[in-house]
Amino acid sequence: MSTQSHEVVDRCAALLLAEGRRPKIAVLLGSGWGPLAERVQDPLRLPYAHLPGFPEAGVEGHAGQMVIGRIGTHEVAVLAGRRHAYEDGDSAAMKGAIAALAACGVEVLVQTNAAGSLDAAMRPGELMMVADHLNLVQHSPLVGETGTKRFVDMRHAYDPSLRAQARTTAARLGATLHEGVYAWVMGPQFETPAEIRMLQRLGAQAVGMSTVPETILARHAGLRVLAISMFTNMGCGLQAETLSHANTLGVAQAASVTAVPLLEAMIADLEV
Predict the structure, then answer these.
(1) pLDDT of residue 8
(2) Structural domain of residue 188, as residue ranges?
(3) What span, in angstroms and rounded, lies between the C-alpha atoms of 74 and 270?
(4) How far apart are CA 98 and CA 108, in angstroms?
(5) Lowest-confidence range among 7-11, 25-29, 36-40, 250-254?
(6) Would the pLDDT of 81 be above 90?
(7) What is the mean pLDDT of residues 119-147?
(8) Beta partners for 132?
(9) Helices marked H in the chain — which ranges?
(10) Tens digit of each residue's pLDDT (9 = 90 or more) over 221-239
(11) Residue 82 is part of a domain; what is its CATH number?
(12) Fewest beta carbons within 10 Å, which of 21, 173, 207, 252?
């Protein structure tokens, strides 16, 4: 990270610490997960525009603000929205935000996204915990970094202990929580039927246009990661429907009624 980038991160971290909040968990909300931000107790709302190094969120369904408060007994920082690589080709758009959170003492990043299902047993409206990912874009948000720290070990990109805790919470609540591999594609166009067949053969159960760059950034910053996908559609060609962002948001909004309380319980149950 350049000297200028370090200065931006330091200014942002200083601003957050000046508010007297010390979150240990950060939650990055994808499409359909926004209502979690309204469930945070004692909230302090900070627009991204007021936070040095934070991106401008440019996709419908992403509010572009951080909410600091409590979920259960945990102090949390909820990021309502991300900037996607497909918006301008920058896979490192969330670098400043994640680095600033790490500098403030955040130890865990909980990620959420909306995804397409590649498995007939995983239906729209259901959730999948990410066990591993495929970086099909083959681009890294760490390009331009220097030193040995950039060579990040991704064996446990999605923390086994956090995943076990999430499974326990889902079982306690009687909720369905699938588990599988998430494939990152650039977008913004949806995949073709041939691409979906390729992804299935590569071993993916879900496909989406986010999450992987943020996971790489988080691991680079020393954060543990838990990621949950909400299925909003079956992959192209797996059923007769025309895919659209409007349909994605509609299904996500309906699924959020049960998904968001489950996520809230998972976060409250985490041992950090």
Answers:
(1) 65
(2) 3-269
(3) 9
(4) 11
(5) 7-11
(6) no
(7) 96
(8) 181
(9) 3-18, 85-88, 95-103, 160-173, 193-201, 212-220, 245-269
(10) 999 999 999 999 999 989 8
(11) 3.40.50.1580
(12) 173
